[in-house]
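Table S2 (continued). Query chain:
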Amino acid sequence: MSIKNMMKTSHKLMVVLLTTSFATSSFAADTGHLDNTFAMTTNLGEIKGAIKDKVVAFYGIPYAHNPFTPSLRFKAPQPYENWQGVLDATHVGAPVPQPGRGQTVELVGTTEDLTINIWAPVDALNSDQILPVMVWLPGGAFIREDAGEQVYEGTSFAKSNTIVVTVNYRVGVDGFMHLDGAPDNRGILDQIEALKWVQENIADFGGNPKRVTLFGQSAGAESVAILLGTDKARGLFQQAIMQSPPMQYLTAEQADRVTKALAKDLNTHPTKEGMSKVPFKQLVSSIIKTSNAMQQNRDEWGMMSWGGTVFLPVVDGVIIKKSPMKDLAENTDSSIPVIVGSTDQEARLYLVPGNTIDRVKNEEKNLFLNDLSLSGDPLTTYNPTKNKESIGDVYADIKSDYSFRMPALHIAENLVKNGNKVWHYNFSWSSPAYGGKLGAAHFVDVAFSFNTLNSAQARSFVGTHPPQELADYMHSSWSQFAHYGSAPWDIYNLTDRATMRFDTHSEQVNDPEKQVRLLWSDFSF
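Corresponding output:
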């Protein structure tokens, strides 16, 4: 459907362009320099955003009250009402409390309201245009997230006449720890609340609440899958994109074990009251410590030791009834079109930077394959000599397939069986970062889909001369999907299995890596 033929809601805005004079001639989100701001009145109150390249960015708009206060701790999100005065949304805010990514675990984030960021073209705010909306759920293994990261900057999408929303939500103990008397999956509940906010308010920013694409990467992509499979989010979005969805989860019994292990490390009770007494700095340190201990103790934790994160969505009978994959397969609205895929070498992000990939032993690789109990002959398929790879390289291939690549493929298969239109992709461009060893790793694709290759954050993953033409194509494919609900390659089916291979020379291929696919055909995610 043409954007021009879409009808905007009857609510019209009074907008005022406030120009200020600064020494610099452009706005940069990471420095806070502004050359102008944009103020307008919404149903929630007056708001002021920052203009860059004819796009207005509104940072830190509250959608739920501070859930870290004593009265709201570990509860479902409470929707935010009107704010007083003019909301200054011109500067990027902090995410929720979480562990930093440095070698020394530090507390980052802040205990404030839950917020979203919005990017909208000036022309849409100054006219009766109504544009498609893309709502982004950032990843971070369910222990981290940051809607304000540089690679998630929505300017390029907005230039293509798309409204972009990025969402901060609770993670770690506050978002996903199982606690008696508290709702499980509080981070998912936050995402649902943010989507409700979009439905009620995005028209004020030129967006069409009836054409919302929910998209995310890693834990954000699994969140999209969970929201597809739960009736609690029914009608809150109409399209979906999942980039590298892991699809791991905990049963209630497993979640209770994790809670007790963390509480033991913190020397507190495994209860809401016990956790509320622990300072956030200690909480985030214990998250990393417990996660590392779990990965190093297979005898105690079994398959959970291969997962890589201590907190995961929980089968609670409310948001997740059977499992994220089974709920998606059985409950997804078949009218929702979907893009889903992964990078070719996902796990190298975790194995290359610290040179772990060079220390993997053949015994560890074989132990992992034994635990997976795959069909066929995995030792032949994942053979270092046959593939002319090191043991570490092959181990990375197995971890990539287990954690992200095969879950994405199974999502595609299940949704095709459900009657959804599905477009499948593999991201194959090999990053030259880390001496050329990073490859097509996890997260490398995100800067291409957002067209944010020039950000400082992206350069550490893609190097200094990444192929702009690849970003142009992948970004335009996502934009086309947001506008029209289709991608520029063939729909996936269970016969041809058409797959877009994103690379310097992108092309459609049919049933890539069939031998690997068959190995995982009976595996239950």
